Amino acid sequence: MNIGIIGLGSIGQMLVKGFSKSGVASPAQLFVYNRTREKSEQFQADWPFTICASLQDVSEACELIFICTKPLDLYPVLQELAPQLRPTQHIVSVAAGISLEDLTSVSATAITKVIPTVTSQILHGVSLYACNQYVSSEQREQLLRLLQALGKAEEVEESVIETATILSSSGPGLIAGMMELFAQAAHRKSPELSVETTRRLLVETLLGTAMLLSEEDLHFEQLIEQVATKGGITMEGLNVMAEYLPPCFDQLFLMTQAKHDSLKLKTKVQFNEN
Ligand SMILES: NC(=O)C1=CN([C@@H]2O[C@H](COP(=O)(O)OP(=O)(O)OC[C@H]3O[C@@H](n4cnc5c(N)ncnc54)[C@H](OP(=O)(O)O)[C@@H]3O)[C@@H](O)[C@H]2O)C=CC1
Ligand SMILES: O=C(O)[C@@H]1CCC=N1
């Protein structure tokens, strides 16, 4: 099956790499259209997909089409595609903050909302998904096979997708942000340890921690118990985090939800005005 990818930014590129590396689709099955053609041409050097000249070219060639533009650029794309869609085609929107209801209002056809993650370029991470009522079981299975090649796939209700997005999709950026602060604090305490060294120590620690949790199927609490000797040093750090981090994470969810809400308002205007 040919797969269309509209928009070749972080997520469009992740899909090309993830599908190709996993072998679930060959680059020859991928049809890419990006607003700026040069970006496609540069990327095509490593991943020999087909470059399309228009949305229509993608639509003609592909049964499954991922729209990977920024949320505010999605409506015009979907509006242009809608009249030419065949009943067998399946559209995937990866845009954060655009509801299936709004998407389906433009085209009463099979549409799935997927919230992917950049870590899927190395075939790890979680893709969240929710399908509309027009997605057939065959279309759902086809998509699931692709998403499972990129890591794990988890079907979620739209009512919780925004909270889950912060964990699985913003997560890599947020974890990187936390690690940078951790690395800088270590450097402030011991300036003879360069920031590069503190970062390197943390990257290996992150990798080992994630692998141990996953391979031994440990809960966070079980790992904490292994590390934090009773009356020892780690417990002091855990106590500090227990005091200061809950309000920080509550605020993080508050602010990211507010951003989701304002994005939804802006995109809803586009969908309702037209
Ligand atoms: N980044 C992430 O980790 C995640 C992103 N998402 C969602 O994925 C979507 C894309 O995000 P991201 O990849 O980060 O964004 P980027 O800005 O990196 O990429 C967007 C791409 O869309 C292209 N584009 C814009 N308009 C059109 C158009 N009309 N036709 C074809 N191509 C077009 C842009 O082209 P040009 O080269 O001209 O700028 C650009 O390459 C967003 O909706 C976001 O909510 C969801 C989960 C995670
Ligand atoms: O930050 C963003 O808006 C996108 C959506 C989730 C992750 N990245």
UniProtKB/TrEMBL annotation:
Q: Give GO BP annotations, semicolon-separated.
A: L-proline biosynthetic process
- What GO cellular component entries does it have? cytoplasm
In what pathway does it function? Answer: Amino-acid biosynthesis; L-proline biosynthesis; L-proline from L-glutamate 5-semialdehyde: step 1/1
Q: Tell me which residues make up the Pyrroline-5-carboxylate reductase catalytic N-terminal domain.
A: 3-97
Q: Please give the SUPFAM superfamilies that the UniProt record associates with this protein.
A: 6-phosphogluconate dehydrogenase C-terminal domain-like (SSF48179), NAD(P)-binding Rossmann-fold domains (SSF51735)
List, alphabetically, the Gene3D superfamilies matched.
Answer: NAD(P)-binding Rossmann-like Domain, ProC C-terminal domain-like
Q: What class of enzyme is it?
A: oxidoreductase
Job description of the protein: Catalyzes the reduction of 1-pyrroline-5-carboxylate (PCA) to L-proline.
The protein's matches in PANTHER family, at most eight in alphabetical order, are given as: PYRROLINE-5-CARBOXYLATE REDUCTASE, PYRROLINE-5-CARBOXYLATE REDUCTASE 3
Protein name stated in the entry: Pyrroline-5-carboxylate reductase
The protein's organism comes out as Brevibacillus fulvus
- Gene symbol here is proC
